[in-house]
Amino acid sequence: QETIDKIAAGEVVERPASVAKELIENSIDAGATAISVEIKGGGIEYLRITDNGSGIDKDQIQIAFLRHSTSKISSAVDLDNVRSLGFRGEALSSISAVSKVELITKTKDSLLGASYIIEGAKEISLTDIGAPDGTTFIVRQLFYNTPARKKFLKSGSTEGSYVFDVVEHLALSHPEISFKFLLNGKEKLMTSGNGSLSDTIYQIYGRQIASNVLDIDYSDDKVSINGFIGQSIIARGNRAFEHFFVNQRYIKSNNLSRACEEGYYGFLMGHQYPFFVINIAFTDSAVDVNVHPTKQEVRFENESQICELLTKIVNQRLRKRED
Ligand code: ADP
Ligand code: MG
User: Whose CA is nearest to atom 20 of ligand 1?
Assistant: First the structure.
């Protein structure tokens, strides 16, 4: 079992950012309205996620760390109706196979919380402990027992910036959740969770970007496209401020990016880059969001149509402002 978990971990757990993504998505699935993320040493040495979600019953903790023991699918039929972000039931088993995990959790129906310690898939302890409602995961020394994999990690600061990206993207796709990110003890991000995307953009990127955005809001019978477009003068690489979410999942797509950039044609100065947060939601199942659960790719049946539409929407909105 230990070996299987270690191998499986390679699928889900590539780096601290993937640990953060899996744990934050679990917090979202648990109904959290506030999620705080803290890392030290790029998240390799220390990564903490605290949420105010449902918590885990003490007698369910060990089960949650078993492979494919997700609480989110009760039968094969359910597979068709999976709405939650995580449903493969292998994140906790994979993470705990290659790190030292400390879990503190409490449901609101229980008087006491529980503390669970598991290192390299070996259970160390399960004890009662006083705790607030919700769940904290602390993941220490990622890949301490798989040195070959540890070698593939980049520097702490690079790995830390990948974790930051994950938090940023999840904060943008969930304006209804308050996110906080601490890097080596310094607060790097804080959103209010008041549900407003434009407030969230302001809280993450500041006034300079937020005061210049234009809203877009389009829908037909197949797709809705909404969000904000603007520009950035901060040189952070061409596409670093381009954010696409398909059915609330952050994705990367050269084709979509190119389509949007085309819409900006003539509207950017030489030193400006596009800034946008664009949510695309399909009303039918033309989009396959599960091509690969840990990758940021999606497949469209009608991608070229969506691209044309995007170019048009972006361009029309920029023109409208000019009037
Ligand atoms: P999955 O998310 O695919 O179900 P995971 O291995 O990520 O599998 O999690 C296993 C189970 O542990 C979840 O189904 C859930 O019941 C429980 N769990 C994990 N994280 C949390 C959390 N932050 N709050 C409440 N329950 C959690
Ligand atoms: Mg999960």
Answer: 26
pLDDT tens string, the chain, 323 residues long: the values are 566 666 555 667 999 999 999 999 999 999 999 999 999 999 999 999 999 999 999 999 999 999 876 666 555 444 444 444 444 688 999 999 999 999 999 999 999 999 999 999 999 999 999 999 999 999 999 999 999 999 999 999 999 999 999 999 999 999 999 999 999 999 999 999 999 999 999 999 999 899 999 999 999 988 999 999 998 876 656 788 999 999 888 998 899 999 999 999 888 877 788 999 999 998 876 666 655 656 677 777 788 999 999 999 999 999 998 76
3-state helix, strand, coil in the chain (%, to 5): 35, 30, 35
Domain boundaries defined on the chain: 2-190, 208-322
CATH topology of domain 208-322: Ribosomal Protein S5; domain 2 (3.30.230)
Determine the distance separating the centroid of ligand 1 and the alpha carbon of 310, expressed in angstroms: 36
User: Ligand 1, atom 17: nearest CA belongs to which residue?
Assistant: 64
Closest CA to 171 of 147, 190, 150: 190
Instruction: Tell me which CATH homologous superfamily contains domain 2-190.
Output: Histidine kinase-like ATPase, C-terminal domain (3.30.565.10)
For residue 105, give both structure tokens. Answer: 């959790």
